[in-house]
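Much of our argument rests on the idea that a fold can be written as discrete symbols. In the encoding step, the backbone of a single protein was reduced to a row of integers, each denoting a local shape. We regard such an encoding as a compact summary of how the chain folds. The record that follows shows the chain in one-letter code together with its fold in token form:
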Amino acid sequence: MKIITQRAWTIVGAAALLAVTFTLGYVVGNNSQKSPVETTNILSATDMEHAFGSAKSSVHEPAMQEPSVMSLGGLVAGLEKKVAANPENIDQQLLLAQTYKELDNRSKSLNLLHSLNKQAPKNAQVKITLATVLMTGDDKQELKEASQLFDEAIKLKPEVASMARLYQGEIKVKLDNMAK
């Protein structure tokens, strides 16, 4: 039996967290526009269908879905509209930035996160998210900026220190490998 490394668990956990965050952000965004009576059911069948696709679809038979609504691009467009309609909602903007990154649009993600960091300089989650996106690149300056952002996040929210130090270790290894 193979031993699963801590890094593998971290990657699996991060992917699961992103999926849950994306789904919750979508559901919360939809529910925030409904009346209090309509929000008693947190995950309606419609919300689940929009988030995960129709349960009626099968491998052999394509689902009858609206491409603009059911596609990931449609979800991103919907999230972009929600962010534009409510620009003070940092959580939705973080979700959008993470989604851009997951869709391999790193530059859009970084632009949004840098803007958010200026808008909310005391928000540790913004700093952590920006740092984790920066550390995916190979630019030395971005890696150094990511390490600095983790230091700032630790000062704002000390309970993230162990995770931030782990990431800083990865950054240091990456910078050391570049030097060689």
